[in-house]
């Protein structure tokens, strides 16, 4: 329960931070006539909505409902993260298309001084929020997704700051005509770069939603435990299925027994289950563990 409260607190920090940045970014962007700053503010605004969605989903998952959700509610976690990833991808593609239009129209005149000041403030504040979330370690995919969003926002703000510094320098040279292209060029580059993180989130959580095999580390731990049990009790064949959904790792192992197997009754079966459970140490996850025994392999195919 303490871990759940810890994760909830982190999500609330993310919500408050997103609210602050969305108001500041959109307002400042309009005043400075900067599409880049408006993009930053819109990203924070969308992050606010997504953070609220994560907070609601997190609270919903914590409420037990064994009658309706007999396998738990963990599937809600990748489902929400997939939605978040799709929303960020859509925003990046929209920003990319608008930046192309601005470039073709000859760029955009921006109040460089106020824009650079915003970028400096935003970069510092983003670093602070990201560090807070990063230091509060958590195994929740919700919290990891929020931290990834803040890392993206930190990179975005840093890129904006660098771009406006370059524009201020160019404005004092014979290349001042290029300054109008700085803002849409930054939007174009940042929106393309940002696509990488949500695409990874989308792929990873789609695999969980489809109950595909988990990471190789998890599979290796399970395989090692299975091989030890087979060697100890002279079991010739096993059928092992593993997947990860949210915080829960589902492990189903079916041992096919033969005449040479040295376990034959329920007490011995339970002993193998206990040994197997003790060998698996997957921190930060809940194990849903099923270990079955049969002499007829047709029941496990």
From TrEMBL:
It holds the Pfam family Cation_efflux. The chain crosses the membrane at residues 9-30, 42-61, 81-104, 110-130, 150-170, 176-195. InterPro entries: Cation_efflux, Cation_efflux_TM, Cation_efflux_TMD_sf, CDF_Transporter. Keywords: Membrane, Transmembrane, Transmembrane helix, Transport. Belongs to the cation diffusion facilitator (CDF) transporter (TC 2.A.4) family. It is found in: Membrane. SUPFAM superfamilies: Cation efflux protein transmembrane domain-like (SSF161111). It is a multi-pass membrane protein. This is Cation diffusion facilitator family transporter. It comes from the Bacteria. Its main location: membrane. Residues 11-210 form the Cation efflux protein transmembrane domain.
């Amino acid at each position: 329960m303490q871990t759940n409260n810890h994760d909830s607190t982190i999500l609330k920090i993310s919500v408050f931070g997103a609210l602050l940045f969305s108001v500041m970014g959109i307002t400042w962007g309009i005043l400075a006539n900067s599409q880049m700053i408006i993009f930053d503010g819109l990203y924070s605004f969308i992050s606010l909505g997504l953070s609220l969605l994560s907070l609601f989903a997190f609270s919903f998952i914590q409420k037990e409902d064994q009658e309706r959700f007999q396998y738990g509610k963990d599937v809600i976690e990748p489902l929400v993260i997939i939605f978040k990833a799709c929303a960020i991808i859509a925003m990046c593609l929209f920003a990319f298309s608008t930046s192309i239009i601005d470039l073709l129209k000859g760029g955009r005149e921006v109040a460089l001084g106020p824009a650079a000041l915003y970028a400096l403030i935003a970069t510092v504040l983003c670093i602070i929020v990201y560090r807070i979330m990063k230091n509060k370690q958590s195994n929740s995919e919700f919290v990891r997704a929020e931290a990834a969003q803040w890392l993206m926002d930190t990179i975005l703000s840093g890129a904006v700051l660098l771009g406006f510094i370059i524009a201020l320098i160019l404005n004092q040279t014979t290349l001042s005509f290029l300054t109008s292209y700085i803002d849409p060029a930054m939007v174009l580059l940042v929106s393309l770069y940002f696509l990488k993180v949500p695409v990874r989130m989308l792929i990873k959580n789609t695999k969980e939603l489809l109950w595909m095999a988990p990471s190789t580390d998890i599979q290796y731990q399970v395989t090692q435990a299975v091989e030890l049990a087979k060697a100890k009790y002279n079991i010739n064949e096993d059928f092992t299925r593993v997947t990860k959904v949210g915080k829960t790792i589902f492990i189903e192992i079916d041992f096919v027994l033969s005449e040479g197997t040295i376990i034959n009754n329920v007490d011995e079966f339970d002993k193998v289950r206990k040994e197997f459970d003790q060998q698996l140490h997957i921190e930060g996850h809940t194990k849903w563990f099923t270990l079955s025994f049969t002499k007829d392999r047709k029941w496990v195919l």
